[in-house]
């Protein structure tokens, strides 16, 4: 918990400097380059298959960061960045400007709404908004915001309306260490404290959070 609090403090101190760098992706150029992406993520960025993430309306900075790290995962043989058998290969031929353009395009679209099952609302809301102090689990809202919209400057992603199945898979990957491209290991530290039930509830709760 102390590590997470320290990271957040340091992050807040650098946001003003980060804000000075404008994102220079071209959404129109990104649209022209997005045909291949549509196969998995849908033509409007709302993936029709729930194992793939919705990327419509996601922060451009976050999309750009992930694309760079997918490419790094491939070029480093998985020792750095984020390795995925599909996305790392897709990111390989992309130039830095391609990534910025695609990020700008998909961030300009609207993410489709989801739903939250009634039986997970109470526990899901507690975990998301307050965490669990006894187990050292911080509030999800502390980084991702009360509505799960994240923040572009800190590169915390929008997680509301995301496919529950995708959120579940990513939390499991953070927990077992197969995904390790989070800032200072924050998500890995948190995910290791989550039970299978916690992950199931949070994933379903976030699907309809708005």
TrEMBL record:
Signal peptide (UniProt feature, chain positions): 1-22
Domain of life of the organism encoding this protein: Bacteria
GO molecular function, one term: heme binding
InterPro entries on file: Cyt_c-like_dom (IPR009056), Cyt_c-like_dom_sf (IPR036909), Cyt_C_IC (IPR008168), Cytochrome_c4-like (IPR024167), Cytochrome_c_Oxidase_Subunit (IPR050597)
Main location: periplasm
Intracellular or extracellular location(s): Periplasm
Binding residues for heme c 1: 37, 40-41, 87
GO cellular component: periplasmic space
UniProt binding sites for heme c 2: 140, 143-144, 187
One Pfam family recorded for the sequence: Cytochrom_C
Keywords recorded for this protein, A-Z: Electron transport, Heme, Iron, Metal-binding, Periplasm, Signal, Transport
Start and end residues of each Cytochrome c domain: 25-110, 119-210
Post-translational modification: Binds 2 heme c groups covalently per subunit.
PANTHER family xrefs: CBB3-TYPE CYTOCHROME C OXIDASE SUBUNIT FIXP (PTHR33751), CYTOCHROME C4 (PTHR33751:SF9)
Protein name: Cytochrome c4
The organism of origin for this protein: Pseudoalteromonas caenipelagi
